[in-house]
Every structure is written in C-alpha cells, then in structure tokens.
Amino acid sequence: MKINAKKMKLDxxxxxxxxxLMVVGDLALSIIHSDKSDRGLYVREAYMIxxxxxxxxxxxxxxxxxxxxxxxxxxxxxxDQIDPKCRKLRAVMKYGGLAYICTGAALHFFIxxxxxxxxxxxxxxxxxxxxxxxxxxxxxxMPAASxxxxxxxxLLLGSFISIVSNRTILPRKMLLFNILPWQLIxxxxxxxxxxxxxxxxxxxxxMSQSSGNLAAVIMFVSQFIWLTRNxxxxxx
Length: 236
Fold this sequence. Notes:
Helix content is 77%, strand content 0%.
C-alpha cells in the first residue's frame, strides 16, 4: 500500500498538536488541590471555596475549539492508514471521526461549565444549593452531551481493529501505542488506586480526565516516529 508519507506525517503532527491542546484544557480543569470530600466531576472543594480561577474554563473552551480543528488532521491520518479496499471500515472511521469532530468540542466545553457553575453558585447561594443546581444542570444536559461517546467508541475500536486485522500500513506491534489500550490504562490506574486508598488525589483526576486526549498524543507521536523510520519503504 503506497502512501504520501510526508503528508501523513504532517497530519499526525497536527493531530498530536490538537490532542495536546485538548490535554491543556483537561489540565486546567483537573490540576487543583484535591480534598477527601471530592466526588465525581464537579463536587470538588476547590470549586466550592472559590480557589478555582474562572479563567480556567475559558482556557478549556478555547483550547477545545482550536484543538478539535487540529485533531481532525490526526483522524484523517488514521483513515489514510487503512487499506482503500476496506470500504466498510474506512466508512466507519470516516463518519465516526466526522461526528466526533462536530461533537467533541461541545462535550469538552460542557464538562468545563460544570466547574464554572459550581464555583459561581457556591459563592452566590452556598454549597448545598450549588450542588443541587449543578446536579440538575448535569442530569438535564449530560444525556444530550453523551451523543459524542458512540462516535468516540467507533474511532477507538476502528483504529484498534484495523491494526489487529492487518488492514493498515502499521505493524501489529504498534498496538502498544494505540489510543485504546493507553486510554484504558490511564482510566484504570486511578480506579485501582481508589480501590486501595479511599482518598482521591489530584493525579487521579489528571489521569482520568485527560486519559483520552493524552492517549491520542501518545498514538499520534508514536505513529509519526514509526512513519519517519519507514518512510522510504512505504513510498516505493
């Protein structure tokens, strides 16, 4: 399978940049002091005592919008790696990727607004009212925001299956750097830690909330390195 390696390398680096910008937004949300009373996405002590700076969700929103634009180039590279004969698999990746690009930034922003409203409502109305209001906000909008998740699943599974079934230019050893196993690792490590220790740490939040985007950075960069090493052979 002959490819334009230079173009694919550029797409992979732009995709890595986009995923990295998304990680910056994730870190703006998660790098705050943890407390034993913290639970879930938004019931966090730092929000309720007002120590969470409100420029952070703005940064999350901005990096999410720009990040998803550049992320789309990485998705294009994922699609171009698949054998053109595999039309159904390419269609799944194409339309799953398109839908994710359209919904990913909105989901990213929605998660960020939880921190904003919890901080503002706690200052204005007190903790109990803030939790009640944000709980209501979350329960109303999360089902709609969850539209993004099936498309994310299509991308993850499509990318993994294409390598396992040898339908891509990548060798099976690149599964070690695929987005799916790395996302599972980054999600499961905090879960295992919480089973061992009752206290949730800041690092638990960092790993959990940035898992998908950090896994994408790892995948895009590793594929760029592999492509650089095999560029001449692939273009023959």
